Amino acid sequence: TVDPTFLLSAIDYDNIAYQSCIKLDYQFILVYKLEYAFNPTPAMDVVINELQKSLGYDVVVIGKSKINTNGKVKHLYNVGPAEFLWLFKHAKYIVTSSFHGTMFSLIYRKAFISITPKRNEDDKRIQDLLESIGLSSCMITSDTSHYLYTESCIYTNDVEKKIETMINDSCTFLHEAITNNHKT
């Protein structure tokens, strides 16, 4: 089945996001950088700098992760679930090294770039997910040293159908597993 976060819709998550204490009134690039599994640098800094130059938005970072950029950066600490969802919902662009950052970018149908481990590393969840739905153009590896902004994250009808199929297949499987388990 798909990751459980994908089984709820953006509308379901909006009910939580609505409770956010954070309300930014400007357009921003959201950065959700995790470093425990691998180091997403230098790729993350390269992408952020290119996006700031091309889009002109400020950067909002969840947590204290260091970002090397010449543009304006705001760090948000102690971000709870409602604030986390609000930030993903309202971001104009997302840069993440997190699987769940990628998931919420997809749930909210945002333009994004996911930084993945180098090709020879083990964790391929982001890569497998994005390849399966036709959005591998929304991902680069952590050792990337050059990035040129393009509108590569386009949710075509084909991408939407693949996402819908993944979710429906998972719901069907779970429903049958639960129904069959109660019959025995």
Largest sheet: 6 strands, parallel
SSE ordering:
HEHEEHEHEHEH
**Helical content (DSSP H or I, runs of 4+):** 40-55%
Alpha plus pi helix count: 6
Distance between the termini: 22 Å
Q: What is the overall pLDDT average?
A: 90
The secondary-structure class comes to alpha/beta
Return Rg in Å: 17 Å
Which overall shape is indicated by the principal axes computed on the Cα atoms? globular
Q: How would you describe this structure to a colleague?
A:
- There is one protein chain.
- The chain has about 180 residues and is an alpha/beta fold.
- It is about 40% helix and about 15% strand.
- It is built from six helices and six strands; from the N terminus they run αβαββαβαβαβα.
- A six-stranded parallel sheet has the order 3-2-1-4-5-6, sandwiched between helices.
- Helix 5 (about 125-135) links the parallel strand 5 (about 110-115) and strand 6 (about 140).
- The longest helix has 27 residues, at about 155-184.
- It is globular, with a radius of gyration of 17 Å.
